[in-house]
């Protein structure tokens, strides 16, 4: 079973939309993918959550409460929402429900919480960061970056941080990319060169399918490596 997590470099980068497209692409490739998210905030009920959007768009057979174990009504970072509602995340619940999903799906697409650095518990007696779960669940990282004037800087900072914790991303997905725009094409080349990480797919505005630039299954199933040869 291969698990991957989509991490965004900024708010509203489009992780849920990319999750939908990635799950749909995996289904086209003959896989049985599932969707998972550790926690969600600003959600009144699961029927209005990201899980419901993905489930409806991809015709998934998962129960919503198995797709998102924790949800909070307030729109704050997870650790603050949990503190305000006095309903703290339990790591065991996260890992057990993830394992339950893995038993019936051969690929798991995990939508990251917040941005690259995201605390889930930040109390005096316990600290849990999203990256702790990424290591524990052995998730492969795909960075989701929205094409903008700051896309290069965001991608370099994100990749360098992930490399500093020994978790190099497997690939980058560019959202709001226009392949007819010379500046976008140049930015894509620079992002690959400066991060030594391949852009594995792009998504144009209102596009309903990933534009894959590499063999998606090979990247997902390959062992993690430390670099990327931009001259290859």
UniProtKB/TrEMBL annotation:
Q: What pathway is this protein a component of?
A: Cofactor biosynthesis; biotin biosynthesis; biotin from 7,8-diaminononanoate: step 1/2
| InterPro entries linked | DTB_synth_BioD (IPR004472), P-loop_NTPase (IPR027417)
Q: Name one GO biological process term.
A: biotin biosynthetic process
Broad enzyme group:
ligase
Taxonomic superkingdom: Bacteria
Q: What is any Pfam family matched here? A: AAA_26
| Binding positions for Mg(2+) per the UniProt entry | 16, 111
Does the entry feature the keyword Oxidoreductase, yes or no?
Answer: no
- Record-level GO cellular component terms: cytosol
Subcellular localization: Cytoplasm
Transmembrane segment boundaries: none
Binding positions for ATP per the UniProt entry: 111-114
Q: Which cofactor does it need?
A: Mg(2+)
Q: What does this protein do?
A: Catalyzes a mechanistically unusual reaction, the ATP-dependent insertion of CO2 between the N7 and N8 nitrogen atoms of 7,8-diaminopelargonic acid (DAPA, also called 7,8-diammoniononanoate) to form a ureido ring.
What is the name of the protein in this document? ATP-dependent dethiobiotin synthetase BioD
**Organism, as annotated:** Candidatus Anaerobiospirillum pullistercoris
